[in-house]
Amino acid sequence: MNPHPATLPVQAGIVFLGIFATLAVAGLIGQILERRFASDSHNPTISNLNARIYSWWVMTIVLLFAFWFGYWGTIVLFLLISFAALREFMTLVYRRRSDYNAMVACFYVLLPLQYWFVLIDWYSMFTILIPVYAFLILPIIASLSGDAGNFFERTAKIQWGAMITIYCLSHVPALMTLEIQGFSGSNILLLVFMIAVVQASDVLQYVWGKLFGRRRIMPSLSPNKTVAGTVGGISCATLLAAALYWITPFSPFQAALLGLLICLMGFFGGLVMSAIKRSFGVKDWGRMIRGHGGMLDRVDSICFAAPVFFHLVRYFWT
């Protein structure tokens, strides 16, 4: 069987057409609001909305372009995403010159090796390279500098950065390697399903929060997350997951259950990553994506959702 063909399934094209139609409607609404409130040139909500819509157009087109090239395109795309996310993470937490060699190992050894193991479908090495070998080797590299200052804290940051930005994100293209009976040649739809549901949850939480949000969940970690936004966004995204069951090997109930789980993981992932940012006194990981901050701001929920989704699908459907 070939779980990762070179062509994009028709179902994926239909989903992308739906996304483009939604973005077109959202863009039209944003332009109407901008013209209606033209006198209020400093309205941050409208400006942020239009910036986010523009960025979503770009990101969706990039995803479609990568998926069009199948397995190789997806691998290359997420390797670059991991590189950008790792760079943002290390830029924020990196403080000592003595950790330079450990940083080099993350960028130029662990990152390409991890994605190479995904590419050649070496499951055992893909799953243990970072949690086992990197977990042991990175502190060894750091200790060779002879700098004992804050050693435990420094090595924990490096290990955490490698785990989140390389290991967790590599589970997205790894979905292409799964061999599901009766689903051969359609694995790209698993990526489309997971990314669409998790990102829709983020967007819908933002929309529900702006429209109905009053009570904040954890203002010290993420001031923009509200009870109404979280419940409304995750509920709608779960319904979306159930509605997308036809592009997956799941039943509607199974799709809804998996959708709810990955949305919850995405939500908690956002909280964790926000806690890290707040501990360093910054709002965003970077400024790479207009309206969204850095790359890591955009994929933080996927970092937590992807490994759970991958291993559940592998355990129950392969």
From TrEMBL:
TM ranges: 12-33, 53-86, 98-117, 123-146, 158-176, 188-207, 227-247, 253-276
The entry's keywords: Membrane, Nucleotidyltransferase, Transferase, Transmembrane, Transmembrane helix
Gene Ontology MF annotations: nucleotidyltransferase activity
Coiled coil, from the record: none
Source superkingdom: Bacteria
UniProt-recorded name of the protein: Phosphatidate cytidylyltransferase
